[in-house]
Amino acid sequence: MSKAKTRDRNAPKPLSILFVASEIYPIAKTGGLADVAYGLPIALRDLEHDIRVMLPKYGAISERKNRIHEINRLKDIPVSVGERTELATVKSSSITNPRQKVQAYMTTNHHYYDSKWGLYADPETGADYEDNDERFIFFNKTVVQTCLLLGWIPNVVHVNDWQTALTAAYMRVMFPDKFKATKIVLTIHNIANQGEFPFKEAFAKTGLPAEVAENFKHKGKLNFLKAGMIYADHITTVSEGYAKEILADAKLSNGLNDILKKRKAVFTPILNGIDPLIWSPDKDKTIARRFTFADLDKKEDNKIDLVKKFGLQYNEATPVIAMISRLVEQKGFALLKEAAESLLKKDIQMVILGEGDKKIEQMLLSLMKKYPKKLSVKIGFDEILAHQIEAGADMFLMPSLFEPCGLNQMYSCVYGTIPIVHAVGGLADTIKEFSPKTAQGNGFTFVKFEAGAMLKAIDKALVTYQNKEQWMGLIKNAMSSDFTWSKSSKQYDGIYRALMATLDKTK
Ligand code: ADP
Question: Which of 59, 138, 498, 505 has the greatest count of CB atoms below 10 A from its CB?
């Protein structure tokens, strides 16, 4: 009894943390950021922190489904964006798992969010909303207002990517005293998107004073991410490989590597995790049949279900290669296009789920027309189908030009779906080439970003697939990969605590 008490006293005090992101699963999702903005806060809650999350309430988000309700103190808050003043009402919802519940604040406003269905782009045309600068200036201002109006000044504010980076600037420039005991962490999930807007007009909309303008200017444009990188106390990114790449590569980082170099002492890579309650073949209620490595024959039932869903003919001996992806250049569709003719002549079937760039959609649909027995494409966003693909496919192709972390290769591993990846960023960190000699490795990789190299990697996978014993060994390795959040959340915890310690010293 007394021992337990002593331990409690010595345990570090839980911190109050506001985690701000432009998408959070299951409320709003276009890609991996949403999964991270769910899994990491839940894992930090497991570490006892008082963590709350915040995002905009886009038009597509249902109030009823997400049990959104009002908060008395956060109604009709006037927020100016340039000349315009709009009222923000911040509402309450939550993200949960069977163990935990995390409070979610959501900024509502008709003009910026309710009247627009998409998160960043019009789903009809695929074009970014023209007022994205205003939409996120408005949102970041409401983040600061929420803390002030609630009288809840968190120990840590954790912002993610360009959409939420301005929160750091507003706290430091507009309210330095109020947030002097708050430490700000910025995570870069994808440096390719920096939130660039015409400088003069967009900076005027921020309402920030001219003397800080240089902190927002990059290559003649207003750059939200740059500002975040300057004002944050600590910067992280989502894999070691990607951290090295964006530090070294001016093209990949659009020149922001200069700032990263200057801030190297406070720049840390932390690999993303995956949530085992959501992505795990033995617990997944969305798939045809749950399975573990011990009863892999049940995975075959998922394959039968999958090919049927995609309108293909089931053949046990024919491997199914899958892709689930935002349809953007980053994901390597140029390689797929180049390799398609040779690839689709092989004894394989392919299923692809994605949405995005209309040209890529058209390219895939015309390939499907040409090879209807080999390739089936579904355009759209379908969370359940994504799970069924992971469960039923034999292989998962990720030929990304660059990949900050990548989640799908990790989901694939735990579902025994063997990843074939371009060895960059987080893909290189998580997928190790299978060696038939040593029986080590959890997938297949290619180094040169070339169609020929990708085809060679696929051929290696196809040869191994024919060798039942080797393939089983490979699946076993993949399924036992450890990608859970527990290690990574402790690393974030370590960063938060180190930041708190610097505060204690300056007191
Ligand atoms: P990124 O964040 O660059 O989009 P990741 O591999 O990190 O790539 O994460 C992608 C996430 O988005 C995965 O959870 C994947 O299943 C999901 N996803 C992407 N496109 C779709 C889609 N069309 N339908 C359902 N889920 C999708």
Answer: 138
Percent of the chain at pLDDT above 70?
A: 97
**How crowded is residue 471: how many other Cβ atoms within 10 Å of its Cβ?**
18
Q: Hey, which bits of 43-182 come out as E strands?
A: 50-56, 69-70, 77-81, 84-96, 101-108, 156-160
Residue with tokens 């999702």: 29
Cβ burial 266-288 (10 Å sphere, 16+ → b, else e): bbbbbbbbbbeebbbbeebeebb
In this structure, the strands spanning 234-237 and 183-188 are parallel
Q: What is the DSSP string of 244-299?
A: HHHHH-TTTTTTTHHHHHHTGGGEEE----B-TTTS-TTT-TTSSS---GGGTHHH
134 lines ligand 1 (CB under 6 A): no
Can you tell me the distance from the alpha carbon of 38 to that of 397, in angstroms, rounded to the nearest whole number?
Answer: 25
What pairs with residue 324 in β-bridges? 353
Closest C-alpha to ligand 1, atom 17: 31
CB of 161 closer than 6 A to ligand 1? no
Task: Provide the pLDDT for residue 8.
Answer: 61
The DSSP symbol for 69 reads E
- Give this prediction's pTM: 0.95
> What is the atom index within ligand 1 of the atom nearest the CA of 330?
3
pLDDT(1) > 60: no
Domains and CATH numbers, the chain: 16-273+486-506 (3.40.50.2000), 293-479 (3.40.50.2000)
- Nearest ligand 1 atom, CA 355: 23
Residue 405's CB: how many other CB atoms inside 10 A?
Answer: 25
d(CA 488, CA 137) in angstroms, rounded, equals 30
For residue 503, how many C-alpha atoms fall within 13 Å in the half-sphere facing its CB? 15
- The C-alpha angle 121, 125, 127, rounded to 5 degrees, equals 40
Q: Quick one: which of 329, 318, 378, 272 has its CA closest to 25?
A: 272
Q: How many CB atoms lie within 10 A of CB 114?
A: 14
- As a whole number of angstroms, the distance between CA 260 and CA 246 comes to 8
Give tens-digit pLDDT for 318-366: 999 999 999 999 999 999 999 999 999 999 999 999 999 999 999 999 9
Note whether 40 and 489 are within 8 A (CB).
Answer: yes
Beta bridge partners of 52: 18, 103
